Amino acid sequence: MSVYATILPLIFLGLLGNGCFLDNNDCYGKPLCVENNMERKNEFFFCCCEGNMCNQNFSWVPQPTTKPTEPSVIHELEPMPNAKQQAITLALLIAIPILLTISLFSFWWLYRRRKLGYFNEIPTLEPVPLPQPSPNLGLRPIQLLEIKARGRFGAVWKAQFKNEIVAVKVFPIQDKQSWQTEQEIFKLAHMDHEDILHFIGVEKRGDNLQAEFWLITAYHEKGSLCDYLKANIVTWPEMCRIAESMARGLMHLHEEIPANKADGYKPAVAHRDFKSKNVLLKADMSACIADFGLALIFHPGKPCGDTHGQVGTRRYMAPEVLEGAINFTRDSFLRIDMYACGLVLWELASRCTVQNGPIGEYRLPFEDEVGLHPTLEDMQESVVHKKERPLILETWRKHPGLSSICDTMEECWDHDAEARLSASCVVERVATLGRALVLNSTTLIRVDNTNEIITTKESSM
Question: What is the DSSP letter of 366?
Answer without folding.
Answer: T
